[in-house]
């Protein structure tokens, strides 16, 4: 009897470990439909070889980098990650076209009382059109937000790391 319970528990854990949490997936789907102007699409994890992910500034693991396709045509990519705020982390999404140009960034879940202004469309528009060849600098080409300094610096660093990672993946012909 004990072995059955352990087996069921392990099976449940394995099943729950695949895919994004439902609340995140729903938000991601909505953004993909809007940005790519599609109703149906496939959303599949893009595998990056482990030996390469170790050398990247951004974290690429299971369930955070996806190919977006419609009728077997590549539309672009989605990158999901967490970045630190003052005492917690926030979840964000970056949508890229097939040429790795940033189409949209979105803060999906912000867990602090202060600094949530980084989730505003107006502030996040700064990242649109950025490519692997861009360098982002807080206070220079990225606008500061009073009361959100830590989150703004964190998002700027996260985007710089992602752009640098994309550059490396592109140079190695993985993307």
Automatic annotation (TrEMBL):
One Gene Ontology term of the biological-process aspect is: electron transport chain
- InterPro entries for the chain: FMN-bd, Ion_transpt_RnfG/RsxG
The keyword Plastid belongs to this UniProt entry's keyword annotation = no
Taxonomically, which superkingdom?
Bacteria
Reply yes or no: does the keyword Acyltransferase apply.
no
Q: Where are the transmembrane segments?
A: none
What name is this protein filed under? FMN-binding protein
Species: Wocania arenilitoris
High-level lineage: Bacteria, Pseudomonadati, Bacteroidota, Flavobacteriia, Flavobacteriales
């Amino acid at each position: 009897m004990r072995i059955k319970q352990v087996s069921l528990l392990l099976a449940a854990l394995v099943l729950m470990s695949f895919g994004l949490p439902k609340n995140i997936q729903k938000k991601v789907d909505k953004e993909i439909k809007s940005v790519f102007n599609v109703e149906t699409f496939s959303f599949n994890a893009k595998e990056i070889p482990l030996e390469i992910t170790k050398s990247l500034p951004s974290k690429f693991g299971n369930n955070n980098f996806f190919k977006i396709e419609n009728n077997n045509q590549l539309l672009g990519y989605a990158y999901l990650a967490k970045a630190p705020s003052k005492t917690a982390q926030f979840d964000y999404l970056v949508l890229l076209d097939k040429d790795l140009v940033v189409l949209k960034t979105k803060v999906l879940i912000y867990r602090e009382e202060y600094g949530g202004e980084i989730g505003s469309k107006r502030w996040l528009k700064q990242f649109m059109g950025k490519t692997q060849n861009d360098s982002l600098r807080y206070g220079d080409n990225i606008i500061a937000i009073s009361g959100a300094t830590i989150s703004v610096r964190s998002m700027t660093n996260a985007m710089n790391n992602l752009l640098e990672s994309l550059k490396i993946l592109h140079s190695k012909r993985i993307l």
